[in-house]
Amino acid sequence: MPQIGYILPTREFIMRGRHEATPILDLAERAASLGFDSLWVGDSVTARQRQDALTMLAAVAVREPGVTIGTSVLLTALRNPVALAQQIATLDRISEGRLILGFGIGPDTKAVRTEYKALGVPFEQRAGRTLEGLRLMRALWTGEKTDWDGRWQVDGVELAPLPHRTGGPPIVIGGGSPKVRKRAGTLFDGWMPVSASAQQWGEGWREVEDHAREAGRDLNDLIAAVVLNLSIDEDEAAADAELDRYIAEYYGVKDPGPLRASHGSYAGTAAGAAEWLNEFAEQGARHFALRFAGDNERHLEVVARVREQLGW
Fold first, then answer.
1. Neighbour tally for 157: CB within 10 Å
2. Pairing of strands 171-173, 153-157
3. Boundaries of every domain in the chain
4. pTM for this structure?
5. Mean pLDDT of the chain
6. Which tens digit of pLDDT belongs to each residue from 7-19?
7. CA–CA distance from 295 to each of 33, 115, 150, 246, 282 (Å)?
8. Domain 170-312 class?
9. Based on the number of CB atoms within 10 Å of its own CB, is 197 exposed (0-12), middle (13-18) or buried (19 or more)?
10. Facing residues of 99 across strands?
């Protein structure tokens, strides 16, 4: 049965000059009360300013003890992996094993390059630092004394606390390139891209499965996730205009058209949203992380009714 998740609007609040955390936690509570299975937060320090992802998730984990939490997605290359391994282990303990670690490297934009520079991380090395950092974190999560000779020098370090789950939380990779799909199938626990359409997502997912099969992995263990944008209104023109406004503001672009086309976006009626989401489910998607354009609380209620209509 597909799982429905909600990406909390940490970025959207900051864009409107609202720095309070409580309204975001109230939305998390409302989503949980409506039956949403998971609550997610995005990550950025300067490029797309928002509350710190791991701190916010710790608060969500305590406030909503029955809901899966996740990062969509964490820019792990911006952090020291030894410190990050401890932070994630602590968060996994706080949530008692309800954490999914989604990670990515960020797009190649001026703002993201400036962010990496501000944090002292070479932008051109972000992929290599990400992959090595995750390997180091997994080594630390074994509980054994860890030696590491690479970008980071680690001599006999033993991490504590260990994560709630042996080996750490499941790790899913964001992004849509062939390299990402291969890594999703061979190295990590799932795939969480933004995809232009259900068909595109399905084609990518079958490639992930092919790589996993070749690596001798159990396909049932993989997390099949997708990040989507929705603007739902029975006035279709109003829904369309709201989605344009949201995409332009969120990504800081004048023409939202190209990003709407590439970033899994729907504008229209609730009935149309049900059909659109079901297309992804028919392609194999099992974890939906949804962002809403406009009134988040209203969208939560609408999507809860859509889910009931779909029988999920």
1. 16
2. unpaired
3. 1-169, 170-312
4. 0.97
5. 97
6. 999 999 999 999 9
7. 17, 29, 47, 11, 28
8. alpha beta
9. middle
10. 69
